[in-house]
Model the fold of this input.
Amino acid sequence: MSLIMPAPDRNVLDRRDEIIAALKVIVPGEGVITETAALRPYESDGLTAYRQPPMVVVLPSTVEQVSAVLKWCFENNVKVVPRGSGTSLSGGALPLEDAVLLGLSKFNRVLDINYADRTAVVQPGVTNLAITTAVEGRGFYYAPDPSSQIACSIGGNVAENSGGVHCLKYGLTTNNVLGVEIVMMDGEVIRLGGRHLDPAGLDLLGIVVGSEGLLGVVTEVTVRILPKPETARAVLLGFPTVESGGQCVADIIAAGIIPAGMEMMDKPAIHAAEAFVKAGYPLEVEALLIVELDGPAAECDYLIEEVAAIARANGAVTLRVSQNDGERLAFWAGRKAAFPAVGRISPDYYCMDGTIPRRRLPDVLKRMAEMSVKHGLAVANVFHAGDGNLHPLILYDANQPGQLERAEAFGNDILRLCVEVGGVLTGEHGVGVEKRDLMPVMFTETDLAHQQRLKCAFDPALLLNPGKVFPQLHRCAELGRMHVHHGKTAFPDIPRF
Amino acid sequence: MATLSPTTSEALCAAIAEAASKHARLEIRGGGSKADIGSPWGGAREVDILDMRKFAGIVDYDPPELVLTVGAGTPLAEIETLIAAKGQMLAFEPWDHAPVFGRAPGAATIGGVIAAGVAGPQRLSMGGARDHLLGFEAVSGRGEKFVAGAKVVKNVTGYDLPKLVAGSWGRLVALTQVTLKVLPRPRQQATMIIENQTPQQAHAAMAQAMGSHGEIAAAAYLPAAVNNGRAATLFRVQGFAPSVDARCGFLPRLLKDHGDVLRLPDADAARVWTAIRAVAPLAGSAALWRVNVPPSGGCAVVAALEPLGARWFFDWAGGLVWLTFDGDAALVRAAAEKAGGHAMLVRGPEGLRARVPGQHPRSKGVDALEARVRRAFDPAGVFETTRFGDVHAN
Done:
């Protein structure tokens, strides 16, 4: 692997036995894992190209234990990598050789549900889907729906600010979380937000969400729950060109319609999905679009006709409206199975996650096809079309020498292209280790320093999840220096009154 | 007191760096519509005004992308006119505070609205300023220009600094440019009303409606004392006509046990929501508080303070209590805390504002963390004008 992580601290590695002994005092019983074989399941997260067994795994079951573990590590200068369910696609939970891996899997209880205030208080190890399961009997659900929702934990969702196919209408995790309890690296327990909407002071909750485990360890989450939409209907559309599909998306939004989901697949993705699940997708089209509308039945019935009319005007050659829920789910079956479908036609695939301004889609797909030739690797595209979030899947074979490196180089070229056209490196998967070294493509050194100083405000010793998100570990003292440039006499021409 | 009006980011960097080197203080100001919120400047400290209105203008607006980039000094009214012409809106419903202080509206800037986290009744269903700020360009207290976030609607690259900057009251950075998410303006709006409910009955009706398929966009309750003797529980539904009609038919059936649910004439509805957004029912000079609580906590707050003379109304289905109260400020803060929330002093005489912090005091740990975060952006405390109770050593 071509990834360079911070060099392990020999001194810490030599103290492994002492560290294990200290952790066992804090978390008695089965909660400290040290055997080589037992550490293996923790050696990677959803980004399996990168692996590193942790020094030791600790699985606390109380906030007091989390606090004591962090405090001990802080006082003894030991790094900590937090982990939820380990489904991150960007390596956010990749262990370090000289770090304690802190797993939150034992925090698996739903603590409180308040239907009058439409909130649920849960522990971080509760899965995304389990929140919906806990409240669906009363007609509610938790809106963000990352595709890993069966397995991924809400604590991990908070760390990564996870999205999903419905986030165009319902927002990312950050728009659906009202409060958290976090433990800081020095062991201090802090509550941010609550069950109300606005913070009293700075919106620290807003930066903890999406901080990729670098600022604190989440030990409790308060989420907003919503009434389940009365109905949902979908329309399946096929277009002879990517341009016409893209124009259809733009026209739907220009008509004032914000669909619950709007997904596009390109021809390679359509073929892979159809071969896998036989969803009945048209094979001759260049772009397939699934538009889902949810809400009151009267609204869905009206809007589905509007969308169909817009699609016809844009030359759709396939147009099928779901007549019942079974049909709607059938439309989705191919899209939801797109990743494993690609996994079936290629030994390995590498999933990218850039966002672009939607209007640049045809150009980006054309240049991606050129890159595919250049790198000698095929690519299939699935696309959250409503919000411009691309998921190119690069097909490669890790057993063929050089292919992983070529896949990485291809992926990096795609992300550079996303930034070049006005987009970003990651729309929902996070930076982690995967896009860490590309951060300077999007941000200047000054931009990054302003982010990293925030890290220093939470974790000045840089012990929590180091080596993630930022390409260089600047010491906080170095970042803190104030450069008063230009002196006092510069710009004497500033207007003053 | 001087007023600095830089016209370029370079000049702004220089002005801030110079203030930092002289241990001077700068109060960042847009239209000045909220200048009377927070403590009046205390004594010896020299505070200059940093006028941001030269950073004005539309940078980029492509309606189908749902993204708008503007200079932070652009007047809010100009932006609203521009995007309304394209059938779009700022879904967090920002508003101009000037009338709250008895001034003429029109001066509020988008930068000021974002910096103060201003949102209206629709915050209940569509999110606040924080949820619609996608990216920004700013100069920090270090006199350095930087960017954060992005100009696309979906992005998780790096820390979500737009969330932190929204509602930071000019205490971290001087915003020069903001990129906002815009959304389609609803084709139709309708407001349903139940009259003469008690606060508890209104809360129960609002909670049931919010948990239903009625897809309520905004919900408020005006007690008789601030609504010409007739209490009004108000529900706004909006969207495409067939959907609005269906929901207007559904709500009376859903809420039949709560009373008669009638449709308010459109002109009355527009007037009442505009009034609620700008706190018009509590116009005047009495001390005005903005109390943020879980919706179920609103009734307890008013039960504690109404017998002592408070006048009030609910927005956000009970989660926002606007109240005027000239009694002991500590009672408001205590009631808000007990209900699981906090209270901000928005309007009050100088003497009161000098004595009572504008923002609700935080726990010791959060307070210390906030101070470290402020130092990260503004090590010399250039933007710490004591307006929000900061005590700075320099």
Remarks:
- The longest strand of chain A covers residues 231-239.
- Chain A has five domains: 10-103, 110-227, 231-339, 346-437, 438-473.
